[in-house]
Design brief:
disordered N terminus, 2 domains, Alkaline Phosphatase, subunit A, six-stranded mixed beta sheet, alpha+beta
Length: 773
């Protein structure tokens, strides 16, 4: 047993001590002994465990493997004033995570898990410092000799502080949160006692579900401790209303866009660090997001259109971003940007193997996909055996053999860089892509092929009453945000995470007649519906309708052309939204679930985000971080990289969340892009750190501050009038447009809409769409 003293200033101790007198959180001086006989606390003995979880990479089913364990070598003590440091005698957890603490302290217990501690779940030394806690109410509830300190116990206390509620309320709320179908289990039994109990005593689906949550919470509390230890300012720079405080006085920032915010930052406290880890850059933690991808329609084609009543109703009742920009043209560069915040110079829709092996390709090059032995997905669907190289249909072969796809003539399409998918996987979370109209039994790395054995008549809005056989290319790999990334295709769960989606024209009975590929026994033609019912969806889910239901057009079916296809796509959006909103996940008030309805690009103009449009063929190169923390262009220049990231006007972007209980119609008219969405998703799922730009994918790091500090390495900005023209900020509405600043919109994207008259200054509502209730 030992005693440690807090290195905290006297004023802070005085103010918190006063608060403790009002809240009965405990007393005594810093070393745990009384300052006078009247304040003496009797010695008590507490015992319990500090619980850990560990993610084990390598699972091919689509859901991560989690192991339960304990933290050995962690320091346990009382923190009477809630500043995250010991006020009393300490104990150290043994090899089984157990502690016995004899102390005169009072208040909440903390477990200080340093980098000298070990996680017995994986046998590894803890990589980063983390502080966990258990409240005085929990100690009274569980009993002095049966205290379980864990990320779950920390979460209950955080929610008490965030919501101004009680331990009993938040313990029950956490049990409600965890009592849903999850990870493929039809139900998970979670009670108020089990969610705060020792997860090592659980088993089966319930344990895996709890460990899945515990791992994500541990990631958050590790990040919270990082913020506290390095003395971050609060709130994060890009969450400060009015603008980024780091821009004030920074060289290279245009006076047209440099705003000095009225809100002042302060050094972060322990309590603030815990809340900040769940609200990174003003983006709250979400459990699941479903991103519905539509195609090639500018704002003026959809907004107010009689052919898109469902989308317009969603925009009017929920949240929308009317000034949202594509980052490239045609489709493939936009999807690639959505998967990893850069299009890597891709300016065509060619196969993801195009240009591979080109001289000067740097870290990119020929595909290195490995053969896959097949198996079973987490939802029971069969996974087919594949070769290292996917089968190439005639379209692929023609493209690969053409000059437009030849080595040296185009940018390398096979990107060997991290993606959203790899980052989610590495954090022990899961992802899904749901694609309509893949041929049954096909390799998801290939476009779907024509199949005359499958024919039916589309009967929904926009129908023409004529039967049509399946045309080639209903499913396109260019519309998969992760497909161009070698790192994504290398993930063990890649095949399991590419899943099927219900259709509007071809039913399961139609597809069962397919002759294109052998159909495995037990093939599930609609994993999307199965997964929603069982909770086996991803943290991030990209939903790709086929090229008729996404408004793109393919084949000769008249229902897949003109205004008919807008009606068809609009109706499909309603089917998707209704199905998600009918799911147990959406109905659970203790979970945050969002639906995004968006388009990859507009309909034909080239204006990029906020008016910036660099000269094609500039010497731009992606930046990498050096050992000294500085950034410089990649060592081996990427072929044709400067041709990319040009934008393609703006289009509809709508957000629905299960937290909103009434129609609100919130509009955020700041300018955003695909790069902004990637940054927002990284914040939403805590897979980046705003204080470390290199943790953000590719161009998602290009904030105003980053651009100003690296302007000499960014030749594409040399002729830009404002540093924010292609900047990225999270979609949180913290930035306030200068009063005299006129937004730059392309008339071809917004003619005939309320946006046709460019907005001057900030919009009227100034609200964060992701936080609305």
């Amino acid at each position: 047993m030992s005693v440690i003293t807090k290195p905290r200033n006297t004023l802070l101790l005085t103010s918190i001590a006063s608060a403790c007198m009002l809240t009965a959180c405990g007393g005594g001086n810093n070393n745990g002994s009384s300052s006078s006989a009247g304040n003496a606390q009797p010695q008590q003995t507490l015992a319990g465990v500090v619980v850990a979880a560990a993610y084990v990479p390598g699972n091919t089913t689509g859901n991560p493997t989690m192991k339960a364990g304990y933290y050995s070598g962690a320091t346990v003590c009382f923190d009477s004033n809630g500043d995250g440091a010991c006020d009393s005698e300490t104990a150290t957890t043994d090899a089984n995570g157990h502690f016995t603490l004899k102390t005169t302290g009072t208040g909440q217990l903390i477990a200080d898990v340093s980098t000298k501690a070990k996680n017995t779940a994986n046998g590894q030394t803890v990589a980063s410092h983390m502080i966990l806690r258990a409240s005085a109410a929990q100690i009274a509830d569980q009993g002095a000799t049966n205290v379980v300190i864990s990320p779950m116990s920390s979460e209950v206390q955080r929610l008490v502080e965030a919501n101004g509620t009680s331990y009993a309320t938040e313990k029950n709320n956490l049990a409600t949160r965890m009592s849903v179908p999850a990870l493929g289990a039809s139900s998970v039994a979670a009670t108020a006692s089990t969610v705060l109990g020792d997860l090592n005593a659980m088993s089966g689906a319930a344990q895996q579900s709890m460990l899945f949550e515990d791992n994500q919470l541990a990631n958050r509390y590790t990040y919270a401790t990082t913020k506290l230890d390095r003395h971050d300012l609060y709130p994060d720079n890009l969450a400060v209303p009015g603008g980024d405080p780091s821009l004030a006085g920074l060289a290279g920032v245009s006076t047209a866009t440099a705003v000095v915010p009225a809100t002042q930052q302060t050094p972060i406290t322990f309590a603030q660090s815990q809340q900040a880890a769940f609200n990174i850059e003003g983006i709250p933690r979400y459990d699941n997001i479903f991103i519905v991808m539509l195609e090639n329609k500018s704002t003026n084609t959809i907004l107010g259109s009689q052919f898109a009543p469902n989308i317009n109703a969603l925009l009017a009742a929920n949240n929308n971003f009317p000034t949202y920009y594509a980052t490239g043209n045609p489709s493939e560069p936009n999807y690639t940007a959505l998967g990893g915040a850069d299009d890597w110079g891709i300016t065509d829709d060619s196969w993801w193997g195009c240009g591979a092996g080109a001289p000067g390709s740097g870290s990119n090059g020929a595909p290195t996909d490995a053969a896959f032995a097949g198996g079973t997905a987490s939802d029971g669907a069969p996974l087919i055996l594949t070769g290292a190289t996917p089968p190439l249909d005639s379209a692929h072969l023609s493209s690969f053999g053409s000059q437009s796809c030849a080595i040296g003539s185009v940018a390398v399409h096979n990107v060997k860089a991290p993606s959203l998918f790899t980052m989610i996987s590495q954090a022990g979370m899961n992802w899904r892509t749901y694609s309509e109209s893949m041929n049954p039994g096909q390799d998801p790395r290939s476009d779907s092929i024509a199949d005359s054995a499958v024919s039916d008549t589309f009967t929904g809005p926009g129908a023409v009453g004529t039967p049509s056989a399946v045309p080639a290319g209903l499913y396109k790999t260019k519309h998969h945000p992760g497909m161009a990334y070698q790192t994504t295709r290398d993930l063990p769960e890649f095949y399991a995470d590419n899943r099927t989606l219900f259709g509007t024209q071809y039913t399961a009975a139609d597809w069962a007649k397919s002759t294109a590929y052998p159909i495995p026994a037990g093939w599930n033609y609609d994993q999307f519906s199965t997964d929603l019912a069982s909770g086996d969806v991803g943290n991030i889910n990209f939903i790709m309708p086929d090229q008729c239901d996404d408004m793109h057009s393919v084949g000769s079916d008249a229902s897949c052309k003109g205004t008919n296809i807008i009606q068809r796509g609009d109706a499909y959006v309603k089917l998707l939204v209704d199905k998600i909103q009918a799911s147990p996940l959406w109905a659970n008030p203790q979970r945050k679930v969002a639906i995004v309805v968006m388009f990859d690009e507009g309909g034909g103009t080239s204006t990029s985000c906020c008016g910036w449009n660099p000269t094609s063929g500039s010497s731009a190169q992606p930046l990498q971080q050096n050992a000294d923390g500085s950034f410089s262009p990649v060592a081996a220049s990427l072929l044709k990289y400067g041709n990319g990231n040009h934008g393609h006007g703006n289009s509809i972007f709508g957000v629905l969340t299960n937290q909103q209980t009434a129609a609100q119609g919130i509009t955020d008219s700041d300018s955003y892009s695909h790069f902004s969405l990637v940054r927002t998703l990284q914040d939403m799922f805590q897979i980046a750190d705003p204080m470390r730009p290199a943790t953000y994918l590719a161009r998602a790091k290009y904030t105003e501050s980053f651009i100003a500090q690296n302007i000499l390495n960014l030749p594409e900005f040399a002729s830009s009038a404002d540093t924010h023209f292609d900047s990225v900020r999270p979609m949180n509405h913290a930035y306030t447009i200068p009063a005299a600043y006129k937004q730059r919109l392309n008339p071809g994207d917004v003619s005939g809409t309320s946006l046709a008259t460019a907005q001057v200054g900030p919009d009227a509502k100034q609200t964060n769409a992701w936080t609305q209730k």
